[in-house]
Amino acid sequence: MVALALTACAGGDDEAGSGGDATSSGGGDGGEALHIGTILPVTGSLAQLGPPEIAGVDLAVKEINDAGGLFGSDVQVTHTDSSDAQNASVATASAQELISAGVSAIIGAASSSVTKNIVDDITGAGIVQVSPANTATDLSGYSDFYFRTAPPDTVQGDVLGNLIVGDGASNVGILVFNDSYGTSLRDVVEGVVGEAGGTVVYGTSGQEFDPAETNFATIVADAIAAGPDAIAILAFTDQTPAIVRELAAQGWDMSKTYFVDGNLQNFGTEGDTGFPAGTLENAQGTLPGAYPSEEFQGRMLEVDPGLKDYSYGPESYDATMLVALAALKGGASDGETIQANMAAVSGADGGTECTGWEECSKLLADGEDIAYQSASGVGPFNEANDPSSAFIGIYQFGPENTYTFSRSEEGEVPQG
């Protein structure tokens, strides 16, 4: 594990309204410098999500520091690796490193299972944890110090289930790994399919596969033998290429295959993850979050020119921005102050709508309440610290096994 501490350079003098002076936001200008940590996937089965998530954090920090920073100092960020649930010691070590470093907030983890391994240590230390990608339903309302800017599986599962039945399927197969992310999402999809009069013919409780599985011949054969007219793959990217190859080898119509955020990627036609041209043509996938604008994509590329996609980049940007705005509103950078103001700056109690650091920080400095307008399209935090609403993007694969945006569906996040 390698940790890298970054401090973006401040851009010019600290002018009035730049966000560097909290004298009118309830706490004076005596706040200490804000130190944020990240526990995001640099290695492991979700490593494809690491670059856009890290870029989203860095973009927010750069925006804040270019405008003069917070409390007269640059915001500092220390990046660490989360890896995955099969390498749990990596995230555990990262969490302990950041706790020892005295961070006030941690962005991550991406995996629900990884989060469950570290959330008690983080929140128990009075540190705000904000995940940009956790979706397991049992994390809703887990702790007063735990927030997320991605919706729980109830939203993506509802959209995915309705997408499948809307395409005419009534007998659905689900290839799902035995991970809290997979089973949580499966349960929602199964409920939606059942309510629509359909049946999950494979992949119900007890038919999950081991996350460490590498040979999918029998699993795929059993799924196809159940007679599905659609198959959803609920897994991560280290299992998915092998599953796709096995499905294609056994004659499955790949246009009737559905992916989710944990494995949606531009597979292409070359390398270890590539398939022959046309393999995934017309297959579909879902991904939480509004599709980022070209302007936002361009800003992320300035931070990391090597980005191949933007999955959960906006959510990571939002998480970082909300943490900093909460500190500014409370006038201090400690975890308790940030926690107490997260819902308020998200717009849970109303306020003037604003976007970005300069606009929102100026309103706070003028003593106004704000309703931060997220880059990812999520609504204000609800009582469970989940976003109250969210968009789910629907994507379709083309002949080169890469996906393009099709449309978005907006859903409300249920509570309780």
UniProtKB/TrEMBL annotation:
Q: Which residues form the Leucine-binding protein domain?
A: 35-350
Family in the record: Belongs to the leucine-binding protein family.
Q: What is the lineage of its organism?
A: Bacteria, Bacillati, Actinomycetota, Actinomycetes, Micrococcales
Does this UniProt record's set of keywords contain Signal?
yes
Say if the entry is tagged with keyword Protease.
no
What InterPro entries does the entry give?
A: BCAA_transport, Leu-bd, Leu_Ile_Val-bd, Peripla_BP_I
What is the protein's name according to its record? Answer: Branched-chain amino acid transport system substrate-binding protein
A Pfam family recorded for this sequence: Peripla_BP_6
Q: Which UniProt keywords apply?
A: Amino-acid transport, Signal, Transport
Highest rank taxon of the organism: Bacteria
